[in-house]
Every structure is written in structure tokens, then in C-alpha cells.
Inverse folding.
């Protein structure tokens, strides 16, 4: 499942090492973490297993894609969508597992990778202000309106000046 999302988000993996939580804050077992620390993924997985829930059940309840929930548990942040969504997914997942969302968010790396499709188009990127004033070219609509007003004024002048 994660491979499918990775193919969709072909950005480079820039995720920071996972945050750590003191072991006393986690009610279940630890596998790979040092004895005094627990990572975000392990915290989520242990809380889910303690409540005997499956990822599919949580995905159905929270309406979060199961692939994203699995990515959070495995700390594969490169497959998640934009960072704002990743934080929202984590907050909802933690609430569903009856964990403190703020504690879970504090374990999430601050510099989550951004999917490449989030980069702005070249024309939309902010440019530094120019030292020369920009030459403003009036729009076609403005030119058309000005031309219509000029024609109307000429017709009015011709009619009233010629008729008197």
C-alpha cells in the first residue's frame, strides 16, 4: 500500500528522524526504540493494539485513508500529503485512540516533506520587488470601454452640435 503512495509522491525523502517520547508515557511494549524512548509510530501502534482496533476500522471511523494511517504508524512521512493534512490526520488519529493530540503532534517532525505537486507554478511564485516601476499595460477590457465611451461622446457631440 505504501509503495503505491510513494509512486504518487515522487519527492525526495526529507523526513527528520522521528520524535521521541519518554517510555513511561506508553502503556505497551517497545521493539526497536532505546529503553528510555518511544517513537510516534510505536506510540500509535501500541495504543491501537491495546484497544484491539485495526487500521481499517480506524480508517472507517475517522475517514482517513488507511494508507496514511499506516504511514503514520511506520513513520513514512514522505507518502503523506501536504504537512497541514498530515498534522490534521495525526490529530484525528490520536483523538480516536484517546491519546493527547498535542503530545502526538510534538513527536511529529517539524520539517515534513512537501509533495512536489505543491510547489507553485513559475508564474505564481513571489518575485522580489523591482527597482524600476512596472509598466502597466491596460487590459483589453479597459481599452474597449474607453473606446465605447469615446465613440458615444463623439456621437453625442455631433448630434447636439450639428442639430443646434
Amino acid at each position: 500500500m505504501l509503495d503505491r503512495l510513494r509512486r504518487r509522491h515522487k519527492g525526495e525523502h526529507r523526513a527528520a528522524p522521528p520524535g521521541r517520547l519518554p517510555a513511561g508515557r506508553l502503556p505497551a511494549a517497545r521493539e526497536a526504540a532505546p529503553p528510555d524512548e518511544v517513537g510516534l509510530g510505536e506510540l500509535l501502534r501500541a495504543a491501537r493494539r491495546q484497544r484491539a482496533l485495526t487500521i481499517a476500522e480506524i480508517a472507517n471511523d475517522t475517514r482517513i485513508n488507511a494508507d496514511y494511517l499506516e504511514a503514520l504508524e511506520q513513520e513514512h512521512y514522505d507518502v503523506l500529503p501536504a504537512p497541514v493534512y498530515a498534522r490534521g490526520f495525526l490529530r484525528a488519529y490520536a483523538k480516536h485512540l484517546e491519546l493527547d493530540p498535542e503530545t502526538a503532534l510534538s513527536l511529529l517532525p517539524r520539517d515534513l516533506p512537501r509533495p512536489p505537486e505543491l510547489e507553485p507554478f513559475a508564474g505564481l511564485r513571489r518575485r522580489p520587488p523591482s527597482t524600476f516601476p512596472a509598466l502597466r499595460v491596460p487590459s483589453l477590457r479597459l481599452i474597449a470601454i474607453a473606446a465605447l465611451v469615446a465613440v458615444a461622446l463623439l456621437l453625442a457631440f455631433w448630434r447636439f452640435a450639428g442639430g443646434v
Q: What stands out?
A: Strands lie at 20-22, 37-39. The mean pLDDT is 76.
